[in-house]
């Protein structure tokens, strides 16, 4: 610890915060009894549904390409990926619910792009889409990954669709892969079957 850090720590201990306890690190022993469940980043043997908005297609096409690329690179067979296009982001939860309820996919990936305008429309749609996607997961038990951009302007959206900030479609697909694997471990390894 630097002198400045040690001095600041001493001031904290002697001042009004003297009863403040400093956090400590807990290390786990090798033979710990704690069960840890983590998702494996393998899409092999799983099926994925992708719902993508046609509105702001300049962005959503790039999100879709990123999501499919991620799934395939992590072992998904292209035949196990179903893409459904819908008019706008507001409709995404409706289609995601139908896909999840059908039982033909292990996870649903929601992709869309909302760019703030001059009216409160953006706020209403963004709120409802987020709530709707969450409800799909909670009501069906099927993992839902949220890859819907909510940006202030087109530049921010482009940055998140493959430029500076990466591709949020890829990120949503990665989330779906991990959630499928965690869900399977929690359910004892049972898979959803493709009908």
Map the helices and strands.
Blueprint: H1 3-14, E1 48-53, H2 57-73, E2 81-86, H3 92-102, E3 107-115, H4 121-140, E4 144-151, H5 154-160, E5 161-163, E6 166-167, H6 168-186
Parallel strand pairs: 1-2, 1-3, 3-4
Antiparallel strand pairs: 5-6
| CATH topology-level name | Rossmann fold
* Approximate helicity band: 40-55%
Biggest sheet strand order reads 2-1-3-4
Structural class: alpha/beta
Question: How would you describe this protein?
Answer:
The protein has helices spanning 3-14, 57-73, 92-102, 121-140, 154-160, 168-186, and strands at 48-53, 81-86, 107-115, 144-151, 161-163, 166-167. The radius of gyration is 22 Å and the shape is globular. The protein has a 4-stranded parallel sheet, with helices on both faces. The chain has a two-stranded antiparallel sheet with strand order 5-6. It starts with a helix and ends in a 9-residue tail after the last helix. Helix 2 links the parallel strand 1 (48-53) and strand 2 (81-86). Helices cover 44% and strands 17% of the residues. It has a single domain (48-186), classed as Rossmann fold, CATH 3.40.50.960. It is an alpha/beta fold and 195 residues long.
Entry keywords:
4-stranded parallel sheet; 195 residues; 44% helix; Rossmann fold; two-stranded antiparallel ribbon; alpha/beta
């Amino acid at each position: 610890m630097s002198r400045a850090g040690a001095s600041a720590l001493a001031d904290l201990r002697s001042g009004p915060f003297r009863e403040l306890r400093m956090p400590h690190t807990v290390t786990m022993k090798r033979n710990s009894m704690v069960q840890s469940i983590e998702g494996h980043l393998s899409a092999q043997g799983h099926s994925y549904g992708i719902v993508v908005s046609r509105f702001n297609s300049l962005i959503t096409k790039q999100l879709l390409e990123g999501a499919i690329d991620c799934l395939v690179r992590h072992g998904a067979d292209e035949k196990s990926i179903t893409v459904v296009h819908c008019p706008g982001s507001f409709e995404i939860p409706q289609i995601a619910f139908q896909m999840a309820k059908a039982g033909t996919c292990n996870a649903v990936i929601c992709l869309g792009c909302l760019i703030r305008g001059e009216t409160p429309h953006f706020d209403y749609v963004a709120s409802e889409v987020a709530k709707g996607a969450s409800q799909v997961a909670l009501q069906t038990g099927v993992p839902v990954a949220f890859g819907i951009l909510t940006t202030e302007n087109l530049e921010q959206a482009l940055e998140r669709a493959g430029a500076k900030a990466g591709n949020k479609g890829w990120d949503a697909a990665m989330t779906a892969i991990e959630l499928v694997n965690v869900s399977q471990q929690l359910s004892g390894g049972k898979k959803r079957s493709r009908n």
